[in-house]
Every structure is written in C-alpha cells, then in structure tokens.
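Notes from the pairing session

We agreed to fold both candidates in a single pass and log them together. This is the raw record for the first candidate, unedited. Please don't reformat it; downstream parsing expects exactly this layout.

Candidate A
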Amino acid sequence: MLALSLAVFIGILSSIFPAFILTNSKYDQLLKGNIRLGANANFLKNGMVVVQFAISIVMVISAVVVTKQLDYLQNMELGYSNSQKLIIDFHFDESLKRNEKTIKEKFKSLSGVVSASISSSIPGKSGRKSMTELPDKNRQTVELYADAYYVDYDFINQYDINVITGRGFEEERPSDFRKSMILNESAVKTLGYHNAEEVIGLPFLQAGRWKGEVIGVVKDFHFNSMHEKIAPLTMSIARSYLTFMILELNTNDLQNSVAQIENTWKEILPDLPLSYSFADETFDELYRSEQQFGNLTFYFALIAICLSLMGLLGLATLSSRDRIKEMGIRKVLGASPIQLMTMLSKKLLSLSLIGLVIGLPISIISANQWLSNFAYKFALNWWMIIPFLLAILLLTVLTIGSQVYKASIANPTE
C-alpha cells in the first residue's frame, strides 16, 4: 500500500509537472524555445522519472510472483483427493454419532452420493491436537504433541490417502477401535526412525488414557496450509470428537445431488440445521488473503505503469518544447529525424534504465521475503521476469518515441 501511494503521488506529480511549467510560461517563450528549468526543477523532474519507474518495476514483478505462487499452490499435489466432497458440520450432535452407520448408509443409498465418512477434522481446517507417548529410535518413551485425526473406517479410503506400510483401519477388527493408531511420515521422522516399517507394532498411550499399537503409516499429505511444513499426525478410530460428515458426490448432476442430501437431512435430522461446504472451497479459503493480495497487486501494477507512462509522456513533451530552437538549428544543419529522436529520447531512456536498475533488486528481495512465508513455493528464476521487463521497456520506448517523433518532424518555423 505504501508503494502504491508513493507511485500514485509521484505519477500525479510528474503528470502535472510539465503542464504546470507549460501553462506558467509565456507564449512567446514557447515559440522561441526559451523555457529553462532551474537546477532544482531538473533534479525533481529526473528524480520523479527514476523513482516512478522503479516503483512500476517493483509492482509488476510483485504481481508476477504472487500469481505464480498461487498457481503453484493450486496445482501442487496435495496427497489426497479433494474433489466433489461435500462437508457437513453437524456440531458434535450425539444423535448422529449414535446412529452414524445407519445415517451413512441412508446417504450412500442416494444416487448422487458415492461414499460417506465421519471425522473430527478435515484437510484445510485447523484440527485437534493431542499428546501421545511413543518409543523413539532409541526406545526411549517420548511425548509427541501432534495433530490428531479421529475418524471412521471409511475416511482414509474416501480421501485416497496412501498407506505406505502396515494397514489401514478395518471394521472387522474390534481392536482397531481406540486401540490402533496410524502415523504419517512426518511423525515417523520426528520419532527418529528412517524406515516407516520400524514403527509398526510400537505401543502408544494417547492423552494419558488410550493404549494400543501403531498399525500403519500413511504418506504425508497437506492437511494444513502450505505456509507450514507437513506436521506430525496421528489417526485413530474414535467417536468422542466426531463433528464432520464427508459425502463424496458424483459429477453427473451436482445440483440434484445436493438437493437429495438436503431433503434426506430434513427427513432424518429435522431439528438439526444443515450446514455444509465443499472441500475445494475450504482449501481455497486457506489462501483467500493471498488471492486478494494478488488481485490488488495486479491492479496496482497497472496503475503504476499507466502513471509512469503518463509522466514520461509529459516530461518528453516538456523536453521537446524546451529544445525547439536547438532542433531547428540542427535541422537546418542537416540533422535527420532519427538523429533528433535519439537526441531527445536518450536522457529519458537513461533515466528509465536507472529506475530499472534500482527497482529490480528491490523487487527480487521483497519477492523472496514474501515467499519465505510459505514452506512450499516455486523457484523464482531471473528468466521468469525478463518478458515482463521487456514489455515495460517496449511501452516506455513507444511512449517516449511517439512524442519525440512528432517533435523531430515538426517544422521549426511554424
């Protein structure tokens, strides 16, 4: 916001500066080319061009970096299936938890529902944490404070979470209820193990109450924002903390599927309001502020470029008017329009390049600083920004050239 405010102020100032000089000059001075700026005015004029161009470079590169990072996040492999999942928050309703099997089967019988599961947490939303005692690599009991997912038997399969060793939860095994635990890869590494198979069969004590053994390890998946590295995670079967029902829908008729679910909900749970969202919306919500920042940066970059070009156009006009007499003499002596254009545009282009040299390192440093907020980010390479810099330089050349060309072909006697 500070950069934008500065760009707007300098852009407006540099746009009205030539008009102010021209309107406060006498007509006969304009015709004779006798407009002369003092040293302070010249310094201000040149400084505005440099600073304004530098700010434009910073804004454009910022917009490019934000856009590429958001694209990277949206296309990154999450480690689970996030598509066509409708999330119902039933707010720990006891009647639903007591009848979870019957209610799940009721929803699964609908033509628009592919599968159903229940859990305490869902990827993309902050979940519950719990303290679990486990043996580390040295067989010393350590306390692992980790995110804890309490799920049913269908959750892992529904989300296509990959079990890399051991097994998942099986309803046919009564001991899986509260007496079995699954860890993710990050939890295994935190305990000091290099091979996931080493943790299979380890005893655990969770929250000082529930004992059992580790039965499997799942591949790391992004259950939190990508601002953070994947943290240790434990998964177990429990009903106490269940609050989300996840329904996977088919894609044939999404609107009709949602309508079926709403009608069925009213039928089986008439006193509980239906509150739902889609899993992809939950994921997008994690980066809502970045998306808004990206949109603002894009529009700010456009404003900064437009103001820079307006300032350059005005200053090119002033520079041309200031050298009317000189151009007339050079024309009489045989100077070509190309030579006159080079003479008039050289200084402004030099100032623009100075702004580029100043703005480029600032933009790279600020971009890397912003990217440091993400544990997972794209690799920022210099060649990614070259096309945008060339586009800015081309617009600069065209803007300056359009004005100096008019001045170079004008009849000095008119």
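Candidate B (folded immediately after A)
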Amino acid sequence: MEERNKNGLFRSWSDLQKRLNFDKDFLNRLKSYLKISRRKPEKKKSLKFRWRGQKFSPRKSGYKTGAYPGSSWKNYQRINFFFSEHFHGGLLTEKDPGENKWNDHFVGYFTINRLSILKRLIIGNFSGETGQGLVLWGPYGLSKGADPLAPVKKHGKGILGFLYSNENSYFTGAAAEIGRGAFSLTMLVSHSPLDATLNPDGTVKSFFLSGLHRTQSEISKKNSLTETLYGGRVSGSWHFGTVGVTYWQNRYSRRISKNDPERYRFYFSGSQNYVGGIDYDLFLGRFNLFGEIAKSRSGWALIGNAVMDMGKTSIVVSYRYFDPRFQNPHSNSFGTSQINNDQDVYLGLKGKITPSTKISFYYDLFHRPWRTYYTPVPTNGNDFFVQAEQKLFPILTVVFRVRFRIKEIVKGGNTLSG
C-alpha cells in the first residue's frame, strides 16, 4: 500500500514484482488474492459500437408454418460511451431468431464514478455482486474446473451497469455507493418487468426464463410480472480483511402459486420475500477464511471456506449448506446454480511437486436432503478430478487429466448410482 500510494498504481504483475522485489512463486500465490486492472486508459471521450449478426440454417418449422413471424437472423448491437473517468454508460439491444422486434431485449445505464464520497451512481439497468453470492449476485460465475481454487472464492465488484444478453437477471432503477475511510454504504431500488407463465386465475405458475418471444404464447408471457425491490449493504475493510452486511426486500405484482405441492413443497410462493446476510473475508497468517451466512423468508444458507498457503502448494476446504426452504432468485454461489436443497464438502489442492511438475486436485461430496423436481427422493453423489502437468521442454508440456462423477439417479422406482 505504501509503494502504491507513493509511486502510483501497479500497471501489471511484472510491474508489481519489480517494484516490491517479489520472487515468482510468492507472486503466483498472491494472484489468488489480488487484482490488477488491465484496462487501458480511456480517451477523454469515446464511443464504441459493436454489431453481431447470425443467420441459422436450415430454418425451423416455425418459420414455414408462420408461428415465428420474425426473421431467422439473430442481431446484437452494443454501444459504450465514455465522457470522462467520472461519466460513462452504454446501451444494448438484441433480437433472437424468430422474434419480430429488433429491440426485443433492450438494456442500458449511465454511471457517475468517484466524485467526493460518491464512489458510484448507476441509473438504468444494473446488477450487484456482494459477499459469496448468497444474498446478491448476477447471472454469471465460475464452475468447477482445472483450477480447484479459483471458483471457490467470489470477488464481488459491488453494483455494476448491466449490458448483457441475459434477459432475466438484472435490476431496473438506481443504485448508489458512498464511502469514507474504511466504510462504505450501498443503496439500491428497482422496478423490473419479468416474464412469467400465468395460471387461469391470474397468479404466476412459473417464471419464463428462456428470453424467447417468437410465438403468440411466448409473447403473452413477456413482462406479465413486475418485481419491486429495495435494499442495501454496509461493509468495512481493514488490513486483516472485510466484513459486510447485505439485505434486500421485494414484492411481486402477482402472487406466485404452485399447483403441485409435492414437487414444489419448498419452492417460493406468495408475493413478498426478503434475504439478508453477513459475509467475511479474513487473512490470518497463512490462512484466508471467507464465507457468508444468509436467511430468506423461509430458510437459511451457509458457505464457509478456508484456503491455506503452504508455499508452493495451496489447499482449500469448503462447506456449503443450503436449506431446501432457502429462496433467493438473485443468488449465485460456487458449486451449484440453485442455492437450495444442497449440502456439500469440497476439498481442493493446487501446487508444484517439482519445478517442472504441477498438480491440481479436487473432491466434492454432495447430498440433496430433499427431492428435486424430477427425482422423488433425496440423493447423494461425488465428483473427483485430478490433473498432472509436466513440462518436458520449453516448448512442450504434457497434461494428464481424469474426472469421475457419480450421482444417484432414479429408474423404475429404485435408486441407482450412475
């Protein structure tokens, strides 16, 4: 921090290494905990436009029968405008194949950054990333892969302008973040239209998440529901880590009512919900402890993680418990896309055996304590992965990779492993 304040921001990892005289192994360990912006300095004013078009062939039967009134072209247009380091924004439109309107999906935002105590103000469409994703997160995140450490820890960026083709995972309204010293306060308010399938009595049967509006049936589901949401976050950052509290509360314009009480026993029903939680990210010697605990209207969710730095090797242990009753449409956490009905223990390792040999490993043991939509009983499973990487010559590296995934399935009334 002293070096950065005295001589300016670090421009790259190599710049950080030279200025602080770190060796390469120590620098590689730091990369799991630090970020260096690689964005090139913007001009004082700029306008960027991107267009992408795709035509799908052969055409589906819906075009021949007239069910799809629009063309088979998929169009995507995005504009980013930059006035200065304090003012910028963007617009995005998209049309899926078969849709009639060129701007069937339209989002945009305007941002004010770093003016006195105002860190960020966003007007328009935005998303939020806080903690480890149990209370508030956008639609995207890392899944398990060759790096067993990277997907475990989320690095929230707070409130962000939304310019993506996902048509169901953003807010519409305004959000602001202010801060002074170690503390920051974020506030947000949103009134967003949503697609939904309705019951005959006008209640909501299910959310319609495909984003497709081609046929009359699909068009009738567009914007048939609205969500009004408000919330905020308070966080503090010190030399040993960060602690934050996040909360939001929402109301739907229609009541959500599930007609199958057996399959949907723990699914959300009603018109109001709330989610609040506490998250932490602490550095204690060689250990990094981070996690989050959250509560919705009906249930709890918990994720706790520990990373131990052993020099050339790092080990991560993660425990996740998501109550079947936990209900949050604005969450996204490591290990699963649906934050409920899940209990997992995860162990990962990454390091060097020799200067030319690297190894990566993880083992994930999971349990579904309640039935899912398609599986009428609780299930268990595990996921095992190992990768060895051997550098033989400066221009030749050999990689060996094995993965086994075992999950119980139901067939003919019996529970089987497969």
